[in-house]
Amino acid sequence: MKFVILGSGTGSNAEAILDAWRENRLGKAEPAAIFCDIPNARILTLGERYGIPARFVSPGPFKTKMSDEAEQEYIKAIRETGAGLIVLAGFMRVIHEGFLHAFPRRIINLHPSLLPSFPGLHR
Questions:
Q1: Alpha carbon of 100 to those of 64, 74, 95: distances in Å?
Q2: What is the DSSP letter of 121?
Q3: Residue 116: is the preceding peptide bond cis (ω within 30°)?
Q4: 3-state SS string over 19-47?
Q5: Mean pLDDT of all residues in the chain?
Q6: Are 11 and 41 in contact (CB under 8 A)?
Q7: Which end of the chain is less congested by CB atoms within 10 angstroms, N or C?
Q8: Residues with a known catalytic role
Q9: CA–CA separation, 50 vs 66, rounded Å?
Q10: CATH, range 2-27+36-109
Q11: First to last CA, the chain
Q12: Looking at per-residue confidence, does 42 or 110 come out higher?
């Protein structure tokens, strides 16, 4: 099964996943792409290092969520990879209902926040 990784920062969780893949510890799982909402984030450098497409996809004008248009762009980009699984590995955006419905039971969030008690990195 192909999977994509969505991240926003250094990519330490993504790197651990990709190391496990490289060491054949993920069974038939295979990375298809890395998408990032920050244009110069370190996670994007992992693509070249592991031989996986990695690119910035604009989240739109908001700081903590994606615009409706950006969410549709992410959905389109993910679908184009043929991935059956989406891994949120430090993706620091609120995911809305439309995104969840586009990939039912196919999203893993490695470290979700619990609002309002634990909002994540930025309040």
A1: 17, 12, 7
A2: S
A3: yes
A4: HHHHCCCCCCCEEEEEEECCCCCHHHHHH
A5: 92
A6: yes
A7: C
A8: 111
A9: 27
A10: 3.40.50.170
A11: 35
A12: 42
Rounded average pLDDT over 31-44: 97
pTM across the whole model: 0.91
Rounded Cα distance, 108 and 87, in Å: 5
Long-range contacts of 66-70 (CB under 8 A, 24+ apart): 66/37, 66/93, 66/94, 66/95, 66/96, 66/99, 68/96, 68/98
Angle 100-57-103 from CA coordinates, rounded to 5°: 15
The domain locations on the chain are: 2-27+36-109
pLDDT at 43 (0 to 100): 97
Is the confidence at residue 41, as pLDDT, over 80? yes
Task: Using the predicted structure, report yes or no on whether residue 115 has a pLDDT greater than 90.
Answer: no
Residue type, 108: I
Q: What are the CA-CA distances from residue 123 to residues 63, 101, 115, 118 (Å)?
A: 11, 26, 10, 9
The answer for residues whose C-beta is within 8 angstroms of residue 15's C-beta and 6 or more apart is 46
